[in-house]
Amino acid sequence: MKFSVIIAIYNRKEELNELLNSLAKQTFKDFEVLVIDDGSQVELKSTIDNYKEDLDISYYKKQNSGPGLTRNYGSEKAKNEYLIFLDSDCIVPEKYLENVNEELTNRYTDAFGGPDSAHKDFNDLQKAISYSMTSIFTTGGIRGGKKQVGKFQPRSFNMGISKHVFLNVGGFSEMRIGEDPDLSMTLWENGFSTRLFSDAKVYHKRRTSVKKFAKQVYEFGIARPILNQRHSQYKKITFWFPSLFLIYSVFSALLLCFSTHFLFWIPFLFLFFYFFVLFVHSTYLNESLKIGFLSVIASAVQLYSYGYGFLKSFVKLNILKLNPKTAFPKHFYSESV
């Protein structure tokens, strides 16, 4: 199996250097790297040139259009039969491609996704955000459970797909956000297979501030009802969990504010207990009280921001009956792109 590793990037020069450095150390060598510069405002070519001797690497710069269409551009330039998409803020372990090759050799699949975690050198906030996105006690547990190993929705930060299959379904769609689960469900609808490769892990920095993280997961929340409309047969009740958690939290806070009777404190105590479990679990995994505390904040931001975005989108699309492109134009590429 030969791979074409496609990196869609906008700025992030330092992160690109870290990713390319990790690719240069791969134990599996039969791959090319395509760096697709999506109209960056910083100079990236010198970073690519530093790896000319260590990697079969190509660099393309294009007008800014967003990550989905940039990955599509890269797929057209790719020479090999299997594409691997990596986000520029990821770092891959030395045996990443070796593990991918072994999985595909033993049990081929049209597309795969891999898990992510925090590297030991990431800062405390990045580790806390990683915990909130991957923990068994948050939506990370819902998305990445063992039951989904055979029908997994790959995420574009760590995704592989047959080039033939990718081009067959038209690549990433016009969705700017949620384009990766959209692609996964399009693959299923066309009879193609996806799978989780548990050993194809990457280290993912994700967002570097609470504000940026909150905005990101809020946009993810908006995207889910849009995806439910596009692929109604794959709707799940679990998608409602963050929104129900938000409603429950507001209800608990109101009871606490407007009643002094102990019984009305019980809903809030359950809420407190949940966050205490997150604190203990993250503290144990990360061996840090600070990261445990930050994980509580990150998990709250994740659940409440996603839940609010989901509710807002659900109301606009299903109650007000607005067209998704009218309700949320920034979630789609413009016709001119």
Task: Provide a quick synopsis of the model.
With 337 residues, the protein is an alpha/beta fold.
Largest sheet: 7 strands, mixed
Radius of gyration using CA atoms only: 21 Å
Low-confidence segments: none
- In CATH terms, what is the fold-level topology of the domain at 3-121 and 149-207? Spore Coat Polysaccharide Biosynthesis Protein SpsA, Chain A
**Protein structure class:** alpha/beta
**SSE string:** EHEHEHEEHEEHHEHHEEHHHHH
CATH class of the domain at 3-121 and 149-207: Alpha Beta
From the N-terminal CA to the C-terminal CA, the straight-line distance is: 33 Å
Count of helical regions: 13
| Average of per-residue pLDDT values | 92
Q: Tell me roughly what share of residues is in helical segments.
A: 40-55%
Shape: globular
The CATH superfamily label of the domain at 3-121 and 149-207 reads Spore Coat Polysaccharide Biosynthesis Protein SpsA, Chain A
Strand order in the largest sheet: 3-2-1-4-8-6-9
The CATH architecture designation of the domain at 3-121 and 149-207 is Alpha-Beta Complex
Our estimate of the beta-strand percent is: 5-15%
Quick one: how many beta strands? 10
Task: Write structural notes for this entry.
By secondary structure, the protein is an alpha/beta fold. The chain has a domain at 3-121 and 149-207: Spore Coat Polysaccharide Biosynthesis Protein SpsA, Chain A. Helix content is 50%, strand content 13%. The longest helix has 31 residues, at 289-319.
Question: What's the layout of helices and strands?
Answer:
Layout: E1 3-9, H1 13-24, E2 31-38, H2 45-49, E3 57-62, H3 67-77, E4 82-86, E5 90-91, H4 96-106, E6 111-113, E7 116-117, H5 124-134, H6 139-143, E8 158-162, H7 163-168, H8 179-189, E9 194-196, E10 202-204, H9 210-230, H10 241-258, H11 266-286, H12 289-319, H13 324-327
Parallel strand pairs: 1-2, 1-4, 2-3, 6-9, 7-10
Antiparallel strand pairs: 4-8, 5-10, 6-8
